[in-house]
Design goal:
With about 180 residues, this protein is mostly beta strands. The protein contains 1 helix and 11 strands. The termini are far apart. The C terminus is likely disordered.
C-alpha cells in the first residue's frame, strides 16, 4: 500500500529555508501591503437622486471588497435612537481578486433618512488578509428627493427627524375632531 502524503500548513512571517528529506527550499517573504483606494472625481447626485461614486483601488495580492462609509457630519445627540442604520453602499469591483480596479457605482439612497443631509463619505477597500485601506474623506449633501409641494416636503422633513432619532417622536396622542 502506498504511503499517504501529509499536508502541513504554516504561516510564514519571515525569510528562511525549509529542509525536507535532504532537499532544501529557500524563500523570501514579501510583505502584503494595505489596499489603496481613492475617489475618481467627486461623488455626485444623478438626475434621479442616486449617489454616483467613481473610484480607483489597488492591492498587491487582489481586492476582496470595497464600500463607501457614509456618516452624518452633524453629530447625533448622545442619547439618539435612530430607527435606521447608516446607509450601506457596496462598490462594484470589476472582478474578484482584481489587483487594480477602476469603477463607477450608482445607488439610490434617496429613501434613507440621511438624504438631503451633509455627510462624510470615506471609501474602504479590503484584501483577503483582512487589511483595510481608506480614502481621504469627501463631504457632500447626500442626494434626496425634491418636493415641489410644501406640505409633502414638511411631512418628509418630520419623517427624517423622527427616523434619525426616535426620541423626537411626540409622546402624546393626537385626537381627531369629529
Amino acid at each position: 500500500m502506498p504511503a499517504q502524503g501529509e499536508t502541513h500548513l504554516y504561516k510564514i512571517t519571515r525569510d528562511g529555508a525549509l529542509d525536507v528529506g535532504g532537499r532544501q527550499w529557500n524563500f523570501t517573504v514579501i510583505p502584503d501591503s494595505v489596499p489603496e483606494i481613492a475617489f475618481d472625481g467627486l461623488p455626485r447626485g444623478t438626475v434621479n437622486a442616486a449617489l454616483e461614486i467613481g473610484f480607483l483601488a489597488k492591492d498587491d495580492y487582489g481586492l476582496q471588497q470595497a464600500w463607501a462609509e457614509i456618516k452624518p457630519l452633524e453629530a447625533p445627540a448622545a442619547d439618539a435612537k435612530p430607527l435606521y442604520p447608516l446607509p450601506e453602499y457596496r462598490l462594484d469591483l470589476p472582478r474578484r481578486n482584481a489587483r487594480d480596479a477602476k469603477g463607477l457605482t450608482s445607488r439610490n439612497l434617496s429613501e434613507h433618512p440621511l438624504s438631503g443631509k451633509r455627510v462624510r463619505i470615506t471609501l474602504v477597500a479590503r484584501d483577503a488578509a483582512g487589511q483595510e485601506g481608506r480614502s481621504v474623506p469627501q463631504d457632500m449633501v447626500l442626494p434626496g428627493r425634491q418636493f415641489f409641494e410644501p406640505l409633502a416636503g414638511a411631512v418628509a422633513e418630520q419623517r427624517q427627524v423622527f427616523a434619525l432619532n426616535a426620541k423626537e417622536l411626540p409622546g402624546r396622542s393626537i385626537s381627531m375632531m369629529p
